Amino acid sequence: MTALHVLVPLTALLASLPARAAWWPQVQAAVAQEFSDLNDVGQITRTVLRLLLAALLGGLLGWERESEGKAAGLRTHMLTAMGAALTVSVVQQLGANLNEASRVIQGVIAGIGFLGAGAILKRQAGGREAVQGLTTAAGIWFTAAVGIAIGLGEESTAILSAVLAFCVLTLVPYLAPTPKRRPPTPASTAEPEPDPQPPPPP
């Protein structure tokens, strides 16, 4: 069943309703105009395929973060990739030129930067500050870039990039050297001095 098979009965149903008001034909025309893009089956197919691919690749990167117990996991990465792909696809469908499309892409990248910043945490660990979430923030940003590539129709580039990023997330931790721990400071290892006892009463 195509979109045309859905649109024709809907239009016939609206036409069969009693047109007692003068504004009813305008409502029919507005509804038909809003759903006129359903006749373009090729465009709908491209949009659905791009969104599905964005969800798949975003889910691939998000699954790795989810398995590591990170807050930004499977759903966050899937929605990030799908949102970026949908935004760029809509801009393309509207016939935007290169300059207009580049500004939209810049806006997407900047917005994702704020989302990634929320994944970065700073806490106290062992008497010194420790920053966590940098890899997750970079992964969210990279997922948006993958979604943008899909929205532009560069599916092969998006697939290759996502696979390489997945290898970085899964294999590099086993190759990276383990950071050396700092020895505890003398102040933290020294036993606290006992409180001075008051002198005995005379």
Automatic annotation (TrEMBL):
Q: Which residues form the signal peptide?
A: 1-21
One of its Pfam families is: MgtC
Tell me which InterPro entries the record gives. Answer: MgtC/SapB/SrpB/YhiD_fam, MgtC_SapB_SrpB_YhiD_N
* Domain of life, per lineage: Bacteria
Q: Report the residue ranges that make up the MgtC/SapB/SrpB/YhiD N-terminal domain in this protein.
A: 51-175
Q: Which GO terms describe its cellular component?
A: plasma membrane
Provide this UniProt record's keywords sorted from A to Z: Cell inner membrane, Cell membrane, Membrane, Methyltransferase, Signal, Transferase, Transmembrane, Transmembrane helix
Regarding the membrane, this protein is recorded as:
Multi-pass membrane protein
Query: What subcellular compartments does it reside in?
Result: Cell inner membrane; Cell membrane
Q: Give the span(s) annotated as Disordered.
A: 179-202
Primary localization class, coarse? membrane
Name one process (GO BP) from the record: methylation
Gene Ontology MF annotations: methyltransferase activity
| Transmembrane region(s) | 101-121, 133-152, 158-176
Query: What is stated as this protein's family in its record?
Result: Belongs to the MgtC/SapB family.
Record protein name field:
Protein MgtC
Q: Organism, per UniProt?
A: Comamonas serinivorans
Q: Recite the lineage of the species.
A: Bacteria, Pseudomonadati, Pseudomonadota, Betaproteobacteria, Burkholderiales
